[in-house]
Amino acid sequence: MAPLLSEEELALGDPYEVLGVPVDATEKQIRSAYRSLSLRCHPDRFPNDEKAAKQFFSISLAVNLLTDPSKRSFLNGRIEEEKRKKEKTAGMEKKRRTMVEALQAREEEAKRAKLDLARAHADASAEQSVQEIGRKMREDAARAAEAARLQAVEEEKQRIRELERATGSMNGGNNKGAVVMPENSLELTLMMQFPLADSTGLTSTTDSLRSALSARYGPLENIDLLPQAGPSEAKPKKSKKAKGPRYAVEFRRTNMDGCWACWKDHLEVEGAEKSRPLVPGTKVKFAGKKDGEAPAWVDSLGSTGKKPAASDTKPPTAAPPKISSTFTSSFPSTTTSSFPSVPSSFPTPESKRKQQEEQRERRAADDFESGILFRMRQQEREKLERQIREQEEAEETAAA
């Protein structure tokens, strides 16, 4: 049976801590610690010090408990039990804190996941909204471009009809002399072979040549530098003289006169020099045609598409066009013109201003539709280059 402790002894707490000795201290160590502490709080030395009196009373109870074997054994068991309880409580508290921290971490992770999901939904919604706006803008731009293209096509058809009516009226209403319109862009394309030595420098770049041709013969549709034809491997040939750059120049459908004038200026005529070539030594022919041959629309203009006889002293001369918006300014300016549709007078300021406005509208429409027509024109240029290469190969094979 456990010894009965007084209330004072129970209230004392840990006697080892009061005396400042370890749990396994011997009785000698306990009494030595008691004597050492009593010197600092003995009532005889400090008669009026209540604090010293309380401390002396506590160490007296502690030494009595620890010098009594039964009470000390009971206290040791009690202290050990309290120690185990504290350790158990500390372990449970640590486990509880770990669980709480894990729970808080899961809650934070769930909150972050929820926020990330909401942010992802918001970003996806914003991206979808931007894509929808972009799609609508592209559709609107495509519709506007298509409308502008159709309007430009209709305006070009109207100009062509007006040109046909004007040509028919100038021929006295006789359909026999009516101008035949080009069937496709190939009939408005000239193959221009320039000499290797060009002192003018106009053929050095595509832009410089475009500027020179546009200033002299009117607006162009396309101009492309063609690759040089490689040597044939089928049959060895004699070394040929090196040639300069070769260009495919496509005139606009409304600039038939400029195409005609450029062809006439560079046409080789027997017994005479070219009338006024852009670069001396330039050779020209229509795409898909042999030298000297011309499409039907050139013959329908009333000008000789064939070479004149050797007895002719001078070839027909094509006058340069005026730098203006009228398409008739590049025809030969002779008294009796070989081109029946040449006007007999210069355009009035009113018609000139009207045509300038039409050109501005057309340029705006061209800029708008250029993105859509780019692929179509690229395919057409590739087809033209392919036809030209096939024709050159056929000519080389025939010459061999």
UniProtKB/TrEMBL annotation:
Transmembrane segments: none annotated. GO terms for biological process: spliceosomal complex disassembly. It is found in: Cytoplasm; Nucleus. Keywords: Chaperone, Coiled coil, Cytoplasm, Nucleus. Its main location: cytoplasm. Residues 350-366, 377-391 have a biased composition (Basic and acidic residues). One of its GO terms (cellular component) is cytoplasm. The keyword Chaperone applies. Residues 324-349 have a biased composition (Low complexity). The keyword Glycosyltransferase does not apply. Residues 14-91 form the J domain. Residues 100-163 form a coiled coil. It comes from the Eukaryota. This is J domain-containing protein.
